[in-house]
Write a structure and sequence with these properties.
508 residues, alpha/beta, Rossmann fold, 2 domains, eight-stranded mixed β-sheet, 15 helices, 43% helix, elongated, disordered N terminus, binds 2-acetamido-2-deoxy-beta-D-glucopyranose
């Protein structure tokens, strides 16, 4: 009897012991298998869908292997569909029931990234993403402690505007943006600008094109009041606004126009005014006063190869639902560099006696360092956010309607570099109209939360009420749409959404 018990005891023990030995052996041989969970949307209508990003991760894996720099490291990459909301959290939790990942890459969408980032911090798992760019994620001391952002946050982008306003001594700005009430990229982009333009009189104008047509007349009232107009919306709407402004002769140098385009490389630059309709000529003239703020592009030979490889794999995969999938946007590039950065940090951590489960140590090692990314050096600041450089493009030959980069902004030293194509006239306000009466800016006193809906400066209470009405309306629609999918209680969902990212800009 005793023997039998002993025997079964040994038998029970055996598998565990062998597992222990293999793990030990692996460690002795320096083999570390890192479980990577990539949480991105599957739908290719997102520029950061995982079919688009996957070839970049594969390339990074191959590069790490080929370099032989980190001989013991192997990455096992799994994908989960995040959609663009709560699904990301569910995917992570479901997956982690089996086995917790060692590294989370993604999500990109703010509302998907927020809960995942919190759980990652709680579970001590490093999370590296080329998204989660909203300002709220900059506050890392609490719930976002394990979040590292390898793409430029909107606050970093906004520094470009802060530097320009300082440099050219502009005094007022109108921020115009389209709020899709879904991903809300433009909302968060403009929030960043708003937060950094502290000494500038700022007005905001927002609309939801799905439900309202953009009323250019209404918008242009705002334009008369301000020196600089900063827009974030689809290319077609930009054209509409520029045409309307041109017709009212606001493009004569008395107002400076900017649009912000970070994601879609094909929608700015040469020919962005061209649509093949009868307004092309007018649009070309109008765009002569439109400048675009975008990412500074560095090109190194290795990047060309990377770009070709990614294009090749996309072509082989043959997605029929995907236009311009082969174009390398900042997400594709970013996730490649994310894996690289993690490998560097983990390697260093292991040298110091830590292992892949020491998330906080690995995260700390990813911050405050510069490494060679696929398109050039990538510098991470001490807060774990990338310092990215930006370019300002302007039309340099109005007859031909061609664009060139005229200035760059370097985040690392906060300096502004003016290139040979730069024309000072283009950035100088001409024939300023009436000086604005010095009414106190309501938006500061009130706190930013009131600034939702259609508010142009210190407009009347009626406008505020109307804005509130529109806002509620749109908001409800958003909730309804999401509820159908997530099958969530409406009240609860709203709560979650409002809490999900603490925006400094508006209540939603
Ligand atoms: C992807 O998203 C687009 C736009 O939201 C939608 O029209 C399309 O049906 C989606 N595709 C799939 C396969 O879910
Ligand atoms: C990018 O911009 C081009 C031109 O405006 C447009 O045709 C295309 O659909 C956009 N792509 C995405 C993914 O938004
Ligand atoms: C890229 O570089 C790798 C190795 O350096 C090479 O094997 C591959 O053929 C190159 N790809 C292209 C498309 O040039
Ligand atoms: C960042 O790194 C530099 C040296 O590379 C060091 O001097 C500095 O103290 C570090 N900053 C923080 C906040 O850790
Ligand atoms: C636009 O076209 C001009 C002339 O062909 C060229 O010099 C310039 O580099 C192009 N700009 C961009 C951003 O492609
Ligand atoms: C800022 O950094 C950029 C890029 O590293 C460099 O070209 C430029 O000269 C620097 N400017 C100043 C004022 O240090
Ligand atoms: C430009 O047009 C606006 C609006 O028509 C006008 O008030 C302003 O004086 C004009 N400025 C110049 C420099 O012509």
């Amino acid at each position: 009897m005793a023997c039998f018990i002993l025997l079964s005891f040994l038998l029970l023990l055996k598998p565990a012991r062998t597992a222990g030995v293999t793990q030990q052996q692996q460690q002795q041989q320096g083999v570390e298998v890192v479980e990577v969970l990539v949480i991105l949307p599957k739908n290719n209508s997102y520029v950061h869908s995982y079919p688009r990003v996957a070839p970049a991760l594969l390339h990074a894996q191959q590069r790490l292997r080929a370099a032989g720099q980190f001989p013991g490291l192997t990455f096992k990459i799994n994908y989960e569909d995040s959609e663009c909301g709560n699904h990301a959290l569910f995917a992570l939790v479901d997956r982690a029931c089996e086995r917790r990942p060692d590294l989370i890459l993604g999500p990109v969408c703010e509302y998907a990234a927020a809960p995942v980032a919190r759980l990652a911090s709680h579970w001590n798992i490093p999370m590296v993403t080329a998204g989660a760019l909203a300002a709220a994620f900059s506050f890392k001391s609490g719930e976002y402690s394990h979040l590292t952002r390898v793409a430029p946050s909107y606050l970093k982008m906004a520094e470009t505007f802060a530097a320009m306003f300082h440099h050219f001594a502009w005094k007022s700005a109108l921020l115009v943006y389209e709020d899709d009430k879904g991903e809300r990229n433009c909302h968060f982009i403009v929030e960043g600008v708003y937060m950094l333009l502290k000494d500038v009189k700022t007005y905001t104008y927002t609309f939801t094109s799905r439900e309202q047509r953009l009323d250019t007349d209404d918008l242009l009232h705002g334009i008369y009041e301000t020196e600089v107009v900063i827009m974030c919306m689809g290319a077609d709407l930009i054209r509409e606004v520029m045409l309307a402004a041109h017709r009212r002769r606001l493009t004569n140098g008395s107002t400076i126009f900017f649009n912000i385009e970070l994601f879609n490389v094909s929608s700015y630059g040469n020919g962005s005014w061209k649509k093949g309709d009868k307004f092309d000529n007018e649009a070309r003239q109008a765009y002569a006063s439109l400048n675009t703020v975008t990412l500074l592009k560095t090109v190194k030979p290795e990047f060309e190869n990377f770009s070709m490889e990614v294009k090749k794999s996309i072509q082989q995969a043959d997605f029929n639902d995907c236009q311009d999938c082969g174009s390398i946007n900042m997400f594709v590039e970013g996730f490649h560099d994310a894996l690289l950065l993690y490998a560097i940090a983990l390697h260093e951590a292991m040298k110091n006696g830590y292992n892949k489960k020491d998330g906080a140590q690995i995260t700390a090692l990813m911050w405050n360092r510069t490494f060679e990314g696929i398109a050039g050096p990538v510098s991470m600041d001490a807060n774990g956010d990338r310092d990215q450089d930006f370019s300002i493009m302007a039309m340099t030959r109005p007859e031909a309607g061609t664009y060139e980069v005229v200035a760059n902004y370097f985040a690392i030293n906060g300096s502004f570099q003016v290139l040979s194509a730069f024309n000072m006239d283009h950035f100088t306000l001409r024939g300023r109209r009436k000086i604005l009466p010095d009414t106190p800016d309501k938006s500061y006193g009130l706190g930013v939360s009131a600034l939702t809906g259609i508010i142009v400066g210190a407009l009347l209470g009626t406008a505020l009420l109307m804005a509130f009405y529109f806002f509620r309306k749109n908001y409800r629609i958003t909730i309804d749409r999401r509820t159908q999918r997530a099958e969530c209680d409406i009240g609860k969902h709203r709560q979650l959404r409002e809490d999900s990212i603490r925006s400094n800009f508006s209540a939603a």
